[in-house]
Amino acid sequence: NVSVFINGFVEIVEGDSVTLNCSSDSNPPALNFSWFKGEAFVGSGRIYSISKISSDHSGEYKCKSINRHGEKYSDAVTLNIMNVSVSITGSAEIVEGDSVTLICSSDSNPPAEISWFKENQSSAVGSGQSFSALQSGRFYCEAHNQHGSQRSDAVTVN
Q1: What are the DSSP calls for 65-84, one per residue?
Q2: Which residues form the Ig-like domain (predicted)?
Q3: Bridge partners for 19 per DSSP
């Protein structure tokens, strides 16, 4: 019986550290452990750690346990890493009447729903990947999927 446990948060955000532990109940005890992301070998040992995780680390991980009688793979665990950022499109100098569009970029699996907020306001001011700012203020987007939510840094529109 081989299984994988994740030490850390259920919601994994870019920059976090994650540790995967491989547990094997065999007789004689397993002495050799290998880690795979999909079909690619990524490491050895009972523990596989990822520091400063990024969206490139998203995917299915499994461990293989080996003793003298054979080998066995664990079920796969899926790491979903969320990354959210905001950019502004328009001229560098914004004057009253100009169009200012904010774009929210969310890298998550499954894809996230996006809401827009103005700082110091509790209710959303928009939804979707882009948002047209019609007034000055600090705005941020929040991406939400079944695994959790992540807020971007705020951008200032003057």
Answers
A1: EEETTEEEEPPPEEE-EEEE
A2: 1-80, 82-158
A3: 7, 49
Q: For residues 147 and 79, give the distance between their C-alpha atoms in angstroms, rounded to a whole number.
A: 10
Q: Alpha-carbon distance 49 to 92, whole Å?
A: 42
For position 15, what pLDDT does the model report?
A: 80
The mean per-residue pLDDT over the stretch 11-24 comes to: 82
Q: For the purposes of burial, counting CB atoms within 10 Å of the CB of 121, is it exposed (0-12), middle (13-18) or buried (19 or more)?
A: exposed
Residue type, 90: G
Share of the chain above pLDDT 90, in %: 26
The pLDDT of 16-22, averaged and rounded, is 88
**Among 67, 25, 79, 21, which residue's Cα sits nearest to residue 45?**
21
How much of the chain is in helix, strand and coil states, percent to nearest 5? 0, 60, 40
Note the pLDDT of residue 88.
65
Strands (E), 91-129: 100-107, 113-118, 126-127
Read off the tokens for 108: 């998550």
Q: Is the pLDDT of residue 90 over 60?
A: no
Q: Which two tokens stand for residue 78?
A: 């899926």
Query: 78 has which bridge partners?
Result: 60
The rounded distance, in Å, linking the Cα atoms of 141 and 153 is 8
